[in-house]
């Protein structure tokens, strides 16, 4: 993704960088539980509020007691095998990719400890979340014959840019985070989505806002990514007459001065603002909106649902609602994750853990080539920590629900 930073925004960008540097993303003085994740140094938590369906109605959480466990000895022997992860590990949105790779690494480490005769290696590839960079990285992955499965790509734009490459190579790719609905319309036979897409997330959060929360007027703002465009379209459509076109707007990745769009918002006097984009822009947008009108509810999706949002937005994040197709971290998983990485799990960590576990289960059962692992994933039906995993021929989950989180 291309960054455009205006001259007026440089000072704000530098201030944001300094603020992030001042509060380490490896915080060790706060805990994560099944109800939420602690933010990096802000003193706020992103706490699970409700699981909802596309009508915005609350649904009970399924038990994770039957979840596939990578730390269980299988007694199986297998030749050494490699799976990969591709996503942003550096750059403005790196926290999202790090959440994924750490979740996958935890599963791999637990599996290898319990199954010494079936060693799995996780290779990581940094795309910086940039579609152009991802197209350069993808051939390196496909040309490595040892890699038989891929977790990722992480973002929708890079997935769109590389899906054909992985499809041609016959390499199964299961994303823990890319939610643009059109990704499964490309005819790829190797792409699977490990969470609900934005055609599920958008209506769910929109109906929750107009129903449970009783919001009458909502301004919808999006960034210039494929993810932002897909989520904005789904949310706006489901909001219906509650979506005020007069205060909708667009922002660019890398921008930090949102005075123009905020002027439109405050003039419209809405009940809420929904932002379709990532935390790097969501944080300063929430700050500037709170300063302009503290009574407007800030709402965003999974791209902002990360401890870095609260770390960078500070007190302005308090009270914000964040939707996500990602599930909250169960207590044991959160404890194991923090012990391994000295920080709480973040958005998509649980999904990556589940996907890695499913792939390793397939490898244990003898699916140690790209064609065999692809077939195994296509027919898989089982429970993970986050949800049940079973896919349609297009690569979408057969059942999908959304979580709403609140910053407290």
TrEMBL record:
Residues 55-64 have a biased composition (Basic and acidic residues). Residues 1-22 form the signal peptide. SUPFAM superfamilies: Periplasmic binding protein-like I (SSF53822). Residues 81-408 form the Leucine-binding protein domain. Gene3D superfamilies: 3.40.50.2300. Keywords: Amino-acid transport, Signal, Transport. It comes from the Bacteria. Residues 54-79 are annotated as: Disordered. Belongs to the leucine-binding protein family. This is Transporter. It comes from Gordonia jacobaea. The lineage of its organism: Bacteria, Bacillati, Actinomycetota, Actinomycetes, Mycobacteriales.
């Amino acid at each position: 993704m291309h960054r455009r930073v205006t001259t007026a925004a440089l000072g704000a960008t530098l201030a944001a960088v300094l603020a992030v540097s001042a509060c380490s993303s490896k915080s060790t003085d706060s805990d994560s539980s099944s109800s939420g994740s602690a933010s990096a140094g802000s003193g706020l938590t992103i706490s699970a509020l409700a699981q909802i369906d596309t009508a915005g109605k609350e649904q009970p959480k399924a038990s994770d007691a039957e979840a596939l466990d990578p730390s269980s000895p299988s007694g199986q022997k297998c030749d050494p095998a490699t799976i990969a992860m591709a996503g942003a590990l550096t750059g403005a949105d790196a926290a999202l990719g790090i959440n994924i790779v750490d979740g996958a690494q935890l599963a791999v480490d637990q599996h290898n400890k319990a199954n010494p005769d079936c060693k799995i290696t996780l290779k990581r590839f940094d795309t910086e979340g940039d579609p152009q960079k991802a197209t350069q990285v993808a051939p390196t992955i496909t040309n490595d014959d040892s890699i038989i499965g891929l977790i990722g790509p992480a973002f929708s734009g890079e997935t769109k840019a590389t899906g054909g490459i992985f499809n041609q190579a016959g390499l199964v790719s299961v994303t823990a985070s890319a939610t643009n609905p059109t990704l499964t319309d490309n005819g790829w036979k190797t792409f699977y989505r490990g969470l609900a897409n934005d055609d599920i997330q958008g209506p769910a959060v929109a109906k929750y806002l107009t129903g449970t929360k009783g919001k009458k007027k909502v301004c919808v703002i999006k960034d210039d990514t494929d993810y932002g465009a897909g989520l904005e379209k789904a949310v706006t459509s489901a909001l219906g007459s509650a979506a005020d076109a007069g205060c909708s707007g667009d922002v660019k990745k890398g921008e930090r001065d949102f005075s123009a769009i905020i002027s439109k918002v405050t003039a419209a006097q809405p009940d809420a603002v929904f932002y379709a984009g990532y935390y790097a822009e969501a944080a300063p947008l929430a700050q500037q909106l709170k300063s302009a009108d503290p009574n407007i509810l800030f709402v965003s999706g999974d791209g902002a649902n990360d401890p870095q949002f609260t770390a960078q937005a500070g007190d302005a994040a308090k009270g914000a609602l964040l939707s996500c197709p990602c599930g909250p971290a169960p207590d044991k998983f959160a404890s194991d994750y923090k012990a391994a990485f000295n920080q709480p799990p973040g958005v998509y960590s649980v999904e990556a853990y589940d996907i890695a576990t499913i792939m390793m289960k397939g490898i244990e059962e003898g699916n140690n080539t790209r064609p065999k692992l692809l077939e195994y994933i296509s027919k898989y039906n089982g429970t993970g920590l986050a949800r049940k995993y079973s896919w349609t021929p297009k690569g979408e989950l057969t059942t999908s629900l959304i979580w709403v989180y609140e910053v407290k």
